[in-house]
């Protein structure tokens, strides 16, 4: 990263949009601009508040010459520019561009705005290609997140985040087992019942499994979910999915949490994005829109530790999705799941656990995949093993190798 | 100069690889400085550093981008006290 040499003395900054683009709704632009500021407030104690009258950062959509001696050049070329703090921090966007929101068409407003606000805060262009502060527009990235380079840059100027966002996942009151408060606001929670739920022992097949950004492991089945502990199920479960992730449906096909800390849920032709337990925008959206090249009605999805890319599984095939590439799915996909040595077709779920291993689930059984050997681990007892015994703590289930329910 | 040379010169000037005064008077820019500016751009853009306006360099110059200079605060244009 590169610092221009100036920064704001205060951390509570104000902004206003003085001139809007022609083709987008004002409310949508307001949301995207706030989201773009949030990119930076997520890693620092900076706050950005919309305000009228005198503000720190003024935002305008302009065409051609617009009074600062640095005229815009029409569609393409220069998309926007912004001034460093010492020059006022204002951000100007070329109104001739086809600004878009959550779409591969046009130029993504959120990403460009987040970049420009980096300048407004004192960051120059970075020569790290994957950094947000790299000068070139890289196309719409549905899984956008700041690069380490950007985070180090902004924290060099304003320090690390010490305050938690409000209201967010992290700010909920902790309950007995350290999890967030899932009860309605202002209601006192009842203590979790001490007994461990046995319903997964009777039928251990489930829909999806994933880790939350906070490091908890959740199993979804129908309209219910369970939190797993190191050895079994946490007390007090199951709970209703819709009560904890408002707006999310049951019978989810697949889910994963990406490196941006957001969790993606897939069902049929749709997907949802959540930040903690809060829906992160207007969802559901079409998989074909946000994950071009990935089929509907998925079996499983995971972020693979081998390369950090997202893998989707369906039937006997898998797809690799790399949001930084265009297209994100190479033409050589789908490929056969048999490439994953020892992993069966028609999976129910898959994820990488906190121990670094990747696990695949089918029926009542699971397989542990060794990411270095690129094969299912050879162990005693060998895989597949009983999900009920090894994951849900059901002592009545077999501990050795089992067949799948299929 | 070929058209690509003159537009490249404008580009390099616009984004801070050549100081503005030089960019306005291309005939006064010596070949070594011009090559150095191209190399700086290539290095910054993460493409092969050839010092030549090769096709990849020219194509990179057509990519949509931010209008803020890549090179700022280098002190190149500051008078020596």
Describe the structure.
The complex is a heterodimer of chains A (406) and B (81). In chain A, the strands form 6 sheets. Chain A has a 5-stranded mixed beta sheet with strand order 2-1-3-5-4, covered by helices on one side. In chain A, strands 12, 13, 14, 15 and 16 form a 5-stranded antiparallel beta sheet that branches. In chain A, strands 21, 22, 23, 24 and 25 form a 5-stranded antiparallel beta sheet that branches. Chain A is of the alpha+beta class and 406 residues long. Chain B has 81 residues and is mainly α. In chain B, 46% of the residues lie in helices and 2% in strands. Chain B has 4 helices and 1 strand; from the N terminus they run ααααβ. Classes of the chains: A alpha+beta (406), B mainly alpha (81). The interface between A and B is medium-sized, with 24 and 17 residues.
Question: What attributes characterize this protein structure?
Answer:
heterodimer; A: 406 residues; alpha+beta; five-stranded mixed β-sheet; five-stranded antiparallel β-sheet; 7 helices; 14% helix; 25% strand; elongated; B: 81 residues; mainly alpha; 4 helices; 2% strand; globular; disordered C terminus
Query: Which stretches of chain B of 5+ consecutive residues score pLDDT under 50?
Result: 22-26, 74-81
Structural class of chain B: mainly alpha
Q: Note the main sheet of chain A.
A: 5 strands, mixed
The helix/strand order of chain B is HHHHE
Q: Strand content of the residues of chain A, in percent?
A: 15-25%
Computed over alpha carbons, the radius of gyration of chain B is 12 Å
Q: What's the mean pLDDT score of chain B?
A: 78
From the N-terminal CA to the C-terminal CA of chain A, the straight-line distance is 53 Å
Low-confidence stretches of chain A: 166-194
Estimated share of beta-strand residues of chain B:
under 5%
Q: Indicate the structural class of chain A.
A: alpha+beta
Average of per-residue pLDDT values of chain A: 87
Q: How would you characterize the largest beta sheet of chain B?
A: none
The helix fraction of chain B, in percent, is: 40-55%
Q: What is the CA-CA span between the terminal residues of chain B? A: 36 Å
């Amino acid at each position: 990263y590169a610092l221009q040499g100036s920064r704001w003395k205060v951390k509570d900054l104000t902004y206003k949009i003085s001139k809007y683009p022609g083709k987008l709704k004002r409310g949508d632009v307001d949301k995207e601009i706030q989201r773009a500021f949030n990119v930076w407030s997520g890693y620092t104690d900076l706050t950005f508040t919309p305000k009228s009258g005198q503000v720190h950062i003024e935002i305008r959509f302009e065409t051609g010459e617009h009074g600062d001696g640095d005229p815009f050049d029409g569609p393409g070329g220069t998309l926007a520019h912004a001034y460093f703090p010492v020059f006022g921090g204002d951000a100007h966007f070329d109104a001739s561009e086809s600004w878009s929101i959550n779409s591969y068409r046009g130029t993504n407003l959120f990403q460009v705005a987040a970049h420009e606000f980096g300048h407004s805060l004192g960051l120059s262009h970075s020569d790290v290609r994957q950094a947000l502060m790299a000068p070139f527009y890289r196309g719409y990235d549905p899984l956008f997140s700041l690069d380490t380079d950007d985070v180090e840059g902004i924290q060099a100027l304003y320090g690390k985040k010490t305050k938690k966002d409000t209201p967010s996942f992290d700010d909920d009151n902790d309950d007995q087992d350290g999890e967030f408060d899932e009860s309605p606001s202002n209601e006192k929670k009842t203590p979790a019942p001490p007994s461990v739920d046995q319903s997964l022992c009777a039928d251990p097949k489930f829909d999806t499994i994933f880790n939350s950004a906070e490091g908890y492991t959740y199993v979804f089945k129908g309209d219910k979910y369970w939190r797993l502990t190191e050895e079994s199920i946490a007390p007090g479960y199951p709970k209703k999915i819709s009560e904890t992730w408002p707006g999310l449906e049951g019978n989810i096909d697949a889910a994963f949490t990406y490196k941006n800390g957001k969790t993606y849920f897939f069902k049929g032709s749709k997907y949802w994005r959540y930040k903690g337990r809060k829906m992160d925008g207007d969802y559901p959206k079409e998989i074909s829109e946000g994950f071009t090249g990935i089929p509907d009605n998925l079996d499983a999805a995971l972020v693979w530790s081998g390369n950090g890319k997202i893998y989707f599984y369906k039937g006997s095939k898998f797809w690799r999705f790399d949001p930084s590439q265009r297209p994100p799915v190479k033409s050589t996909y789908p490929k056969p799941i048999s490439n994953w040595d020892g992993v069966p077709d028609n999976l129910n779920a898959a994820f990488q656990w906190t121990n670094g291993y990747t696990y695949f689930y089918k029926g009542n059984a699971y397989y542990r995949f060794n990411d270095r050997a690129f094969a299912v681990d050879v162990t005693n007892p060998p895989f597949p093993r009983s999900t009920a015994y090894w994951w849900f703590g059901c002592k009545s289930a077999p501990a050795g190798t089992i067949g799948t329910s299929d | 100069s070929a058209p690509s040379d003159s537009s490249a010169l404008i580009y390099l000037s616009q984004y801070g690889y050549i100081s503005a005064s030089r960019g306005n008077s291309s005939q006064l820019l010596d070949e070594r400085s011009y090559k150095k500016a191209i190399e700086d751009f290539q290095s910054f853009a993460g493409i092969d550093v050839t010092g030549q306006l090769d096709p990849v360099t020219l194509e990179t110059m057509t990519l949509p981008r931010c209008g803020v200079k890549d090179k700022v605060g280098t002190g190149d244009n500051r008078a020596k006290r």
